[in-house]
Amino acid sequence: MSEWAAHALILALAFVLGSVPFGLIIARVFKVGDLREKGSGNIGATNVSRVAGFWPAGFLTFLLDTLKGSAAVLLAMPISQPLWAPAFELSDDQWTLGLRWSAGLFAVLGHCFTPWLVFRGGKGVATAFGVIAVLSPWAALAGIVGFALTFLITRVGALGSLAGLGCAALAYLVLSPVVGNLGPHLWAGALMIFVILVRHESNLDAILRGDERKF
């Protein structure tokens, strides 16, 4: 198999991984019914928590959606590399790093536009967190802090998620020694953030109007 074919296979597998609608499955396990007809209609952890409770249904949804992103990135890593080391410390090859971020991007795309639900899906935050947790654990920690502080102040899940995503992105730019080179990894990461923002369009509109749902 050629290198390009192997890369295409990794991205395809990452998309399939991301497309598994765990929120919908867990909601049915907990006898909530079709999650798309409950609460906000979203299949992510926030809506599962809203209609079935955070523990354990919402937590399991968040965990599994996060693991989808992490697993997609690990698919793009050579077996010989230690999993606990940040990806940007393991290689100076921008295209290799770009493949890892692209695998994460495709997992997020699979989650947001799953073919199993006629290309409807979630909003991608938990899956993106799983991507960042593998590629830059310190940036993921900054995202957790950003989410926690914002959510505690506002009690708005969407606003906390977007604040956490912004903090994680900023931390990655500050901490990563490869940002001086605008390689494909940054473009893949930027596109991932853009997709998540687009998926939160209705939430952003509601936040600006002051009527976004609170917990």
List the helices and strands and how they pair.
Layout: H1 3-19, H2 22-29, H3 45-52, H4 54-75, H5 94-112, H6 125-135, H7 137-154, H8 157-175, H9 184-199, H10 201-209
Helix pairs in contact: 1-4, 1-5, 2-4, 3-4, 4-5, 4-6, 5-6, 5-9, 6-7, 6-8, 7-8
Overview of this structure, please?
This protein is mainly alpha-helical and 215 residues long. The protein has one domain (3-209). The chain contains ten helices and no strands. The chain has helices at 3-19, 22-29, 45-52, 54-75, 94-112, 125-135, 137-154, 157-175, 184-199, 201-209. The protein is globular, with a radius of gyration of 17 Å. Mean pLDDT is 88; it is low at 82-92.
Short description:
This protein is mostly helical. The protein is built from ten helices and no strands.
Give me some keywords for this one.
10 helices, globular, mainly alpha, 0% strand, 215 residues
Number of helices: 10
Whole-number total of structural domains: 1
Q: Which spans of ≥5 residues are poorly predicted at pLDDT below 50? A: 82-92
Average pLDDT for all residues:
88
- Give the N-terminus to C-terminus distance in angstroms: 50 Å
For the largest beta-sheet, the strand count, sense and barrel status come to: none
What class, by secondary structure content?
mainly alpha
Shape: globular
